[in-house]
């Protein structure tokens, strides 16, 4: 699939629907800081989990500050949020929270924003001449909804058909982890993993299937604890019904030993 053309999702989510957001140029965004969005549209985008682009929306000055500078700034702002909520920051239990949250944001859960943390692409020749699909299933997904900053947790199943290269299997886990470690939208995460795999493997023949539970659905709003969200991206040979079915059969197969 070429970016921007009809992503296939099991959910009836219209991916590029922008709901009247005026998309600003980079310069406008940098000077304004934030998008001007009507309050009712803010709720609509959040509740429907709409994304506005495949690229994570980052400013051009996103990495001008060092990690330490970022932690220092976030710490101050998070302390202010807690203060506004009425919490007593002199209480011993709360004292370290702003620092902990800031460090966690920068060094852990949003570390995938920074391109320097991107896993290196190491490929090997396909010496065995194995030309069937390779499926890595049940990869843990821990990501964060960018509309509510709450986690979504699930599994990714990723497949490719070699075009002459093979990839270290743990590399696929690392690609999933890297793109998950951002404020995300599940549809975008699915596409970003697929695109990265295509680039790394120099093939169009990739499939990515993610099923996850969103805490912003289970702990607030509709408070639905049962439902999960499935997003899929099929590219190249995976658009063929038999190949797609074979991939799904592999995912469904009970191979736990
Ligand atoms: Zn959300």
Structure, explained:
The relative contact order is 0.14. This protein is globular. A hairpin with a 5-residue loop joins strand 2 and strand 3. Helix 3 crosses helix 5 and helix 6 packs antiparallel against helix 7 (186-201). The strands form two sheets. Strands 5-2-3-6-7 form a five-stranded mixed sheet. A two-stranded antiparallel ribbon has the order 1-4. It starts with 25 loop residues before the first helix and ends in a 5-residue tail after the last helix. Mean pLDDT is 85; it is low at 1-34. The chain is an alpha+beta fold. It has nine helices and seven strands, in the order αααααββββαβαβαβα. It has two domains: 64-113, Orthogonal Bundle (GTP Cyclohydrolase I, Chain A, domain 1), CATH 1.10.286; 123-252, GTP cyclohydrolase I, C-terminal domain/NADPH-dependent 7-cyano-7-deazaguanine reductase, N-terminal domain (GTP Cyclohydrolase I, domain 2, 2-Layer Sandwich), CATH 3.30.1130.10. Helices cover 37% and strands 18% of the residues. The structure holds zinc ion. The site of zinc ion (ZN) has 7 residues, from loops. Zinc ion is lined by residues 46, 49, 145, 147-148, 214, 216.
SSE diagram, text form:
Layout: H1 26-32, H2 39-48, H3 67-84, H4 92-95, H5 97-109, E1 123-125, E2 133-145, E3 151-161, E4 165-167, H6 169-180, E5 183-184, H7 186-201, E6 206-214, H8 215-218, E7 229-234, H9 241-252
Parallel strand pairs: 2-5
Antiparallel strand pairs: 1-4, 2-3, 3-6, 6-7
Helix pairs in contact: 3-5, 6-7
